[in-house]
Amino acid sequence: MEVTIGNDSELISQAQGIRYQVFTCEQHIPAALDLDGLDEASFHALVMENGEPIATARLTLHEDGSSTMARVAVSEIYREMGVASKVVKSMMQYAQELGVTSIEIHAHSYLRNYYERFGFEFIKEVEIVGEHQLVEMRYQTVHS
């Protein structure tokens, strides 16, 4: 299982395919909400297994040095196998290498404890997307 991070058009297309399956088909989130125009300006993590894309996440950098990790998605048959954790850890490491000051996420509220294990801190409940309550969380990066 290899993780590739980049922002070329082929990688973005594969990431969008996973997101469509997970967010639009499974979670009934309108595709227009997923395709927010930030993909080309962001970095994408893509996990491949046997030549097939199976998981993704997106990192968007901001001018103030902060970043936002979003669109974490894993194909259904690969869930509960540690794939999401591999994507999140890879993206956090990449963000640190880029020198970001913090990583913000808006995650499903039921994933709050999951992200706290990576060091994210709960900030507040935010919007509801589709039928899903989201929470805002932040990870402060450490620079030596």
UniProtKB/TrEMBL annotation:
Domain called N-acetyltransferase: residue spans: 1-142
Record-linked SUPFAM superfamilies: Acyl-CoA N-acyltransferases (Nat)
Any one GO molecular-function label of the UniProt entry: glucosamine 6-phosphate N-acetyltransferase activity
Class of this enzyme: transferase
Keywords from the UniProt entry: Acyltransferase, Transferase
Presence of keyword Methyltransferase: no
Domain of life: Bacteria
EC numbers for this chain: 2.3.1.-
Protein name per its UniProtKB record: Putative N-acetyltransferase YjcF
Organism: Kushneria phyllosphaerae
Organism phylogeny: Bacteria, Pseudomonadati, Pseudomonadota, Gammaproteobacteria, Oceanospirillales
Gene: yjcF
